Amino acid sequence: MATQADMSAEGIDGVRMTWNNWPKSKVEASKCVIPIAASISPIRPHPDLITLPYAPLRCKTCVAALNPYCRVDYTAKIWICPLCFQRNHFPPHYASAISESNIPGELYPNYTTIDYKQETGVGTGVGGGDRVVVFVVDTCMIEEEMEYVKSAVRRAVVGEMEGVRVGFVSYGTQVHVHELGFSDVMNKVYIFRGDREIGKDVVLDQLGISRKAGFSKVGGGVGGVGGGGGGGSGVDRFLLPAADCEYTLNALLDELETDQWPVPPGSRSLRCTGAALNVAVGLLSACTPGTSARIIALVGGPCTEGPGTIVSKDLSDPVRSHKDLDKDAAPYFQKAVKFYDSLGKQLVSQGHVLDLFASALDQVGVAEMKVAVERTGGLVVLSESFGHSVFKDSFKRLFDEGEQSLSLCTNGTLEIYCSKDIKIQGIIGPCTSLEKKGVSVADTVIGQGNTMAWKLCSLDKNTNLTVYFDISSSERSNTPGTLNPQLYLQFLTSYQNSQGQMMLRVTTVSRNWVESSVGSEELAQGFDQETAAVVMGRLCSHKMEMEEGFDATRWLDRNLIRLCSKFGEYRKDDPTSFSLNQCFSLFPQFMFNLRRSQFVQVFNNSPDETAYFRMLLNRENITNAAVMIQPSLISYSFNSPPSPALLDVASIGADRILLLDSYFSVVIFHGMTIAQWRNMGYQNQPEHEAFKLLLEAPHQEAQMIVHDRFPVPRLVVCDQHGSQARFLLAKLNPSSTYNNVNEMAAGSDVIFTDDVSLQVFFEHLQRLAVQS
Fold first, then answer.
1. Any idea where the domains of the chain sit in the sequence?
2. Closest by alpha carbon to 542, among 588, 492, 599, 489?
3. For the ranges 157-161, 342-346, 391-395, 594-598, which has the lowest average pLDDT?
4. Mean pLDDT for the stretch of residues 190-201
5. How many Å apart are CA 705 and CA 425, to the nearest integer?
6. Long-range contacts, 696-704 (Cβ 8 Å, 24+)
7. How far apart are CA 179 and CA 169, in angstroms?
8. Which whole number is the average pLDDT over 188-207?
9. Whole-angstrom Cα distance, residue 537 to residue 544?
10. What local confidence, expressed as pLDDT, does residue 125 receive?
């Protein structure tokens, strides 16, 4: 669930902006340094949301929906759209009842976000909104890993997939499509070669499925399938309701073995991941248009065969590294990305989703698959083993119902309408441009741009998108009398919820225009430091991927210096006189941590890990994304209640326990004295009850963090000077290093690094910001 902090920051709208007061002209906007952007959570739950059982009224000019900012003439029965100022007549069923004392829900001032139930159309699939899940399982792995995978799939199908149709594809050297609707006597498997790309028409022909197969209306299709005639010619030989194929699937999993193809010494397994996903996409193309379908890929190693290959079969050839990508020395990379790009486009056109669960000690190709996963809004989890809690708990959450569920929704579209003079540059996040042109489309493109509408094949309650705006350069200041002091943005998200019902959420937000050259104080008051840090992190990651030779650290530094020069108070060339407006006081610290984060520093991370981190940064809400950039640290001791601690090596104490939350991992770090007492077993003695409670407190807090998060973070429990203490030390400000160890207090820890500390960073920033 969204926490109370999230609720207050984002309100009912689920919208946070870098600037809550906007400059009036393009020139002034460029002087703001930080882009004008909005972070939106399209379907975030909120206790105050209401749902109306009818469709919204739309403006006849700009198509925006009726909202609380509309001016209403109750006598003439007219409403004026705040975005384009068009006068619209209320339809008869509104006009007959509407008055100042009787207004519809969408005009209530506090209902700036409202849900509408839409008429059910073809978008709900057949038979009350059948959902489809196709498991695509890699069999080129050791027996132990295979058992973990089978157990996870079995648990999902048995307990938690009511009303879901299931399909099963396994692959190694070849692709095996398993027919689940066959008789008990024998398993029927269709085999495809793994060394070539297979068109969807070929897949359907080979499987004997007609183009417009659809699902049979019979309960599950098992009864009519046995003889291989009549009802068995459709897609429901392969996609059956979980309840009907539970026995068959369990038997299939019991018999499923690791790939038997011989692997010569010094060679990698022949693994055709790309071909398997290609076949699964082809199989789903036979579903009724608009069916809510997901491919869940469980991948245990790199693709070495057919389309999507990332490395050769020869073990002496290493998997591509960041250095290889920079020097263009990764021979398979571009071709694999192109393949997954076309696969992503096919999935988007079908409205289907690719989820990726990758577990391996080496890379599996997440960097190449990123384009298909992100375009379809799929989920991604990267772990070391299928036996690790990161995989097992995350996979279980995918099928959970109730409060803990992810509330997975599908078939979404997002449309954005803006006041005149506001242009949309694009969106960074899990979506695809629908290339719908309009007056509010900007010339410059960031992310998925050139459009005012986007496809969201999958979205959940945590899905978050960053929209980048531009101010058009029309000379508005010439006509101050006609200028509306307010600007308006409207976000319309249409989607199919987990019950198969089509919903529409309309969010309308308003902000003020300000004369920034006159009132930069007014501009500063509307600055959201947390949102700005995340927006800069997302934009920086995007530029690192898109722009060749982009120097991320330098770009961040130059923008921070410009921001401090603009909004700081100082005498020219006097660093000691520098002070930063309170509204920007935390921002340099965010930038310091962003520069050191795994999003910018790719050294020591594989391309797969970097792709994984960036995908999650781009899709999580501002609170979570800010923790990824600047982790939170809580200190537990006998002397004081649990309290936030500085993210600094000076926070380490022998008699303290620290709890670090860096989103991807949660670290419980015991000081030296605490660890010694624990090892001596003091917590088991009745007279040391307080010590026992002190040890338990961070574990309880850690469980609460883990409980609410997807993917489930890695939990690390370590002691001062232990080998796993590196998980904490890597995130702390190195105020104490081997260079200044003599100046530090006794007992304080030391970080062996050449990185500058926050204090040195800030001194340099002051010096450069005041330069004339």
1. 1-45+407-516, 54-109, 124-398, 604-767
2. 599
3. 157-161
4. 92
5. 35
6. 697/636, 697/642, 697/657, 698/634, 698/636, 698/642, 698/657, 698/658, 698/659, 698/668, 699/668, 701/634, 701/642, 701/659, 702/659, 702/666, 702/668
7. 9
8. 92
9. 11
10. 38
Kind of pairing between the strands at 502-514 and 422-428 = unpaired
Cβ burial, residue 202 (10 Å; 0-12/13-18/19+): middle
- Confirm if 535 and 590 have CB atoms less than 8 A apart: no
Q: What is the pLDDT of residue 8?
A: 60
- Strands, DSSP E only, in 194-349? 240-241, 292-299
Q: What is the pLDDT of residue 482?
A: 44
Tokens of 597: 């984060």
pLDDT(73) > 80:
yes
C-alpha to C-alpha distance for 69 and 134, rounded to whole angstroms: 45
Cα angle 380, 386, 392; round to 5: 70
Q: What are phi and psi of 509, to 5 degrees?
A: -125, 150
DSSP 627-646: HHHS-EEEEE-SSS-SEE--
CATH superfamily for 604-767 is: Severin (3.40.20.10)
How far apart, in whole angstroms, are the C-alpha atoms of residue 15 and residue 465? 10
User: Any idea what DSSP says for residue 512?
Assistant: E
- List pLDDT tens digits, range 141-168: 999 999 999 999 999 887 667 778 999 9
Predicted pLDDT of residue 284 = 94
User: Which residues, other chains included, contact 365 with Cβ-Cβ below 8 Å and sequence gap of 6+?
Assistant: 273, 299, 302, 303, 308, 310, 336, 358, 608
CA 593, chain centre distance (Å): 20
- The H-or-E segment that residue 503 falls in is strand 502-514
The per-residue pLDDT for range 452-475, each reduced to its tens digit, is: 999 999 999 999 999 999 998 654
Q: Tell me, what's the pLDDT at 122?
A: 41
Q: In the structure encoding, which two tokens stand for residue 63, read together?
A: 């198509």
The beta strand positions in 315-405, using DSSP E, are: 353-359, 380-383
The DSSP line for 327-341 is TT--TTHHHHHHHHH
Other C-beta atoms within 10 Å of 340: how many?
23
Task: Kindly tell me if the per-residue pLDDT of 217 is higher than 60.
Answer: no
Q: Are 671 and 657 in contact (CB under 8 A)?
A: yes
- Asked if 502 contacts 123 with a C-beta cutoff of 8 angstroms, the reply is yes
Lowest mean pLDDT among 173-182, 496-505, 557-566, 744-753: 744-753
* 270 vs 212, residue with greater confidence: 270
CA distances from 481 to 336, 412, 474 (A): 57, 40, 15
In this prediction, residues 74-89 reach a mean pLDDT of 94
Average pLDDT, the chain: 88
Pair 363, 607: CB distance under 8 Å? yes
Q: What is the CATH number of domain 124-398?
A: 3.40.50.410
- Amino acid 22 reads W
Q: Which CATH number fits domain 54-109: 3.90.1170.20, 2.30.30.380, 2.40.30.20, 3.20.20.80?
A: 2.30.30.380
pLDDT digits (tens, 9 = 90+) for 564-591: 999 999 999 999 999 998 999 999 999 9
CATH topology of domain 1-45+407-516: Immunoglobulin-like (2.60.40)
Helix (H, G, I), strand (E, B) or coil at 220: coil
Q: How far apart are CA 65 and CA 38, in angstroms?
A: 20
